[in-house]
Amino acid sequence: MDLSKLDARLDALDADGYLIDADSTDADQYYLSGFDAPDPFLTLYDGSTHLLFVRSLEFGRAKRESRAASVERFTDYGYDDRLEADGRREAAHRTRAAFLDAYDVEAVAVPPRFPLQTADGLRKQGIEVVADAEQTVTAVRASKTDEEIDHVRAAQRANEAAMAAAEDLLGQAEIDGDRLLVDGEVLTSERLKEEIEVTLLRRGCALDETIVACGADAADPHDRGSGPLRPHEPIIIDIFPQDKTTKYHGDMTRTFCVGEPDEQVREWYDLTERAYREALAAVEPGATGADVHDAACDVYEDAGLPTLRDDPGTETGFIHSTGHGVGLDVHELPSVGPDGGELEPGHVITIEPGLYDPAVGGVRIEDLIVVTDDGYENLTDYPVSLVVE
Amino acid sequence: MDLSKLDARLDALDADGYLIDADSTDADQYYLSGFDAPDPFLTLYDGSTHLLFVRSLEFGRAKRESRAASVERFTDYGYDDRLEADGRREAAHRTRAAFLDAYDVEAVAVPPRFPLQTADGLRKQGIEVVADAEQTVTAVRASKTDEEIDHVRAAQRANEAAMAAAEDLLGQAEIDGDRLLVDGEVLTSERLKEEIEVTLLRRGCALDETIVACGADAADPHDRGSGPLRPHEPIIIDIFPQDKTTKYHGDMTRTFCVGEPDEQVREWYDLTERAYREALAAVEPGATGADVHDAACDVYEDAGLPTLRDDPGTETGFIHSTGHGVGLDVHELPSVGPDGGELEPGHVITIEPGLYDPAVGGVRIEDLIVVTDDGYENLTDYPVSLVVE
């Protein structure tokens, strides 16, 4: 874990420390503290790391499991003595300020989404609190160590197994009018998701959501899909599991069709595969996320299809970024979109162009890759093919 | 959804509106907006509800699915025109301010954990932003409608099935020295969790985590447990699934022992069952969460065991609250601990006393109940028994 960028940022902001107030579902908190807890706690980084817990509940485990130099509690900083005179909220603010004071911290930088009430409370105690617009801890997380890349790789292996289970189930389906049947039962989005999720669970992965979307559902990139799947229509399957032990994610999308896609869908698929290959070809250290995004947009716009680059108000066509970073968060830095900065070796990103229109459905192809010294390595080992045999 | 408490709070704070900036994993956001989205968006409540999205991606679905009176985008408030002159961040602040201005909102109340950068940006644009220490939307969520209670009930039914599957697996175990064997394989925490999670998944529930903890692991209420389960020791199983469709949670804990618990464990179990029954007996409208917590603490302290009430620094004994609200969040208001206020009909809460000591292990019993006009209804239908037959 190389925190030199964070040290430099603290210098630039004239801050004595970086402060996080969050539970460990906040990836910055988990990364900086090295501790997994369901309730919010305070992490102070001032060259080394110090944790402050409201209650004793996590204290013992934090001492054993966290990477912190010190683990402390509200009660160690006079919280209980202040309660009667100050009330709970004011006592909490004074306790946090006393903790910072113990480390000679008078000015802190905090993540942009740091809780307002904590910030206002500290400010009232004379602590300077500045929101770090550059999200430096998030930015630091973008560059993965070899160990972190291995974690992502492992999650993507489970992802491939889940995608194969899903495709296998589609392969068993018989076309019955406008329905798909497996063992005589109507094949639904829910059934396919269950297959995917059980496969992932048995491989130690959790999942927020899985997308199995067909027809108009698939035309909305964030619709998870529901109900019967239909033949001859594109079915988008987007799987983004989190390894329960390491907490790192995988991410992959394929679009399948059982039966005969119509000409329009076939065209969209070929175009999206071209956009995906052009975007991949644009990935190298020194190129920006915006360059990669432009490569995908060029393909679509050259074919006369709308993109957000071309028309910021469009609701059809290519209506999202080409990709995003993946790690402890399934969406994290770096951006592979119009604002994407320079790509660096160790950045783990998705490449996932797609086309959407409620009248047609949706098509998307997504791989997960890592930027290397001379280009990229694809962390995804799964065929790109529309029609399920 | 009765928002009269929110209206009153806005009056008291002299605020024109309540503002949330979060994705829908934030339960207040999901509750107020009625919209499920993975990226942060703005919800303004000023008597009716207005949503503001950064990008177009969610626009169509939000118009169809949300409960909002209006759904708007950054681009509708001049974001793109401001970008070049102002830069991204400043343009975003001005765009949010323009949106508030369109509804004549000059002062907003926000949740305590509202993101600092958004608040500071709005303040710079002349908007008054005050953190609502009373978490009014969270407080409103504490009182459930009959429909919400049915959602919790359904999640708890799935929970009971999962607990039965786990107990069944323990029942199949043979004792082999200090190990448990099922079909010749060592029974682990991980194996039991998989059984629980697959059972829940097949019933439409997701889960953040499940606790199956034995021995010293169980002595830490937040340790999820790992490795082989041992005979003659208490095994804590705490399951808190979320129904994927409704997003409401269930919550239940049982402590099991395969083989013969020693005298100490048996004593702790009986004491915890007594604390659980005394706490349940204390539940009625008008009683406070603190009263219910006191009832549990009394049982433990009378038996000479430490509690946080008695000794705020203790790391063994009864080291957490007696319970918490359950709904869209698995931990929400009302509190059933030292700061717990008055209980009202429609409050859904857990009752879950427990004892912990690394030298002994842990014991906890937890039911989920709803406060009614004349007491409570237990939403949990599962036996309370230590020894697995």
TrEMBL record, chains A, B:
Q: Which residues form the Creatinase N-terminal domain?
A: 3-142
Q: What InterPro entries does this protein map onto?
A: Creatin/AminoP/Spt16_N, Creatinase/aminopeptidase-like, Creatinase_N, Pept_M24, Peptidase_M24B, Peptidase_M24B_aminopep-P_CS
Q: Which domain of life is it from?
A: Archaea
Tell me the keywords, alphabetical order.
Answer: Aminopeptidase, Hydrolase, Metal-binding, Protease
Task: Please indicate if the UniProt record lists rRNA-binding as a keyword.
Answer: no
Q: Does the keyword Repressor apply?
A: no
Which stretches are transmembrane?
none
- GO MF term (any one): metal ion binding
Q: Which residues form the Peptidase M24 domain?
A: 151-373
Pfam families recorded for this chain? Creatinase_N (PF01321), Peptidase_M24 (PF00557)
Coiled-coil parts of chain: none
What is the similarity comment for this entry? Belongs to the peptidase M24B family.
Q: Output this protein's name.
A: Xaa-Pro aminopeptidase
Organism source for this protein?
Halapricum desulfuricans
